[in-house]
Amino acid sequence: MPEMDKKSSVSITCIFLLRVLTFIFLLIALIVTATNKLTQVTINGPREVKFKDFGGYRYMVSTTAVGFVYNLLQMTLSICTLVSGNRPFGNVSYIFDFFGDKIISYLLLSGSAAGFSYFGDLNTALIKSTQNPFNSFVKKAIASASLVLIGFLCTAITSIFSSFALPKKV
Predict the structure, then answer these.
(1) Three-state secondary-structure class, residue 89
(2) Which residue, 124, 123, 108, is CA-closest to 30?
(3) What is the DSSP secondary structure assignment for residue 51, as one 8-state letter?
(4) How far apart are the C-alpha atoms of 119 and 158, rounded to whole Å?
(5) Which phi-psi region, left, alpha or beta, contains residue 26 (left: φ > 0; alpha: ψ -120 to 50)?
(6) Is the dihedral of CA 101, 24, 150, 148 positive or negative?
(7) What is the CA radius of gyration of the chain?
(8) Would you tell me how many other CB atoms lie within 10 Å of the CB of residue 47?
(9) Residue 78's pLDDT band (boundaries 50, 70, 90)?
């Protein structure tokens, strides 16, 4: 088993921890989104409002799910690297990390922005009526968008680490 140098080991560990943080934030965001429901009374009877009813919210959930799966894959690859001392797929994995981190970070940012733009405007419109039951739904949606934004920040920092590793290895 080849021995990794100490600097490389510390870098891989930092990247792994950032990926774990991203994973946790995106998991919580998905849970908050999946459980965010509101029963609305209409003329035709009660109707349940979910994330599926809002285009911006659906986009945010989609980007969150893609980021979640990507981070799960990257955490697995990081564990393999830490255990074996070798990168799976050799130097190609550095290119995958570089482009994957960039693309996923931009996706997470755009998903968070979609959630904030839609529900931020809605929250501003509802702020005057504190008795509105829709307020709770909107506040949970904004909390979910905030978690995705924090996940973006962790992925963006990971992206910086992968940019530093790319010229040295490829």
Answers:
(1) coil
(2) 108
(3) G
(4) 28
(5) alpha
(6) positive
(7) 20
(8) 12
(9) confident
How far apart CA 90 and CA 95 sit, in angstroms, is 10
pTM comes to 0.82
Cα angle value 130/131/132 (rounded, 5°):
95
Nearest C-alpha neighbor of 26 from the set 68, 62, 59, 63: 68
Is residue 170 domain-resident?
no
User: What is the separation of C-alpha 109 from the centre of its chain, rounded to a whole number of angstroms?
Assistant: 8
Q: How many domains does the chain have?
A: 1
> Does 1 reside within a domain?
no
Q: What CATH number corresponds to the domain at position 91? A: 1.20.140
d(CA 105, CA 168): 22
* pLDDT above 60: residue 68: yes
Distance (Å, rounded) from C-alpha 32 to C-alpha 128?
25
In which domain, by residue range, is 156 found?
6-164
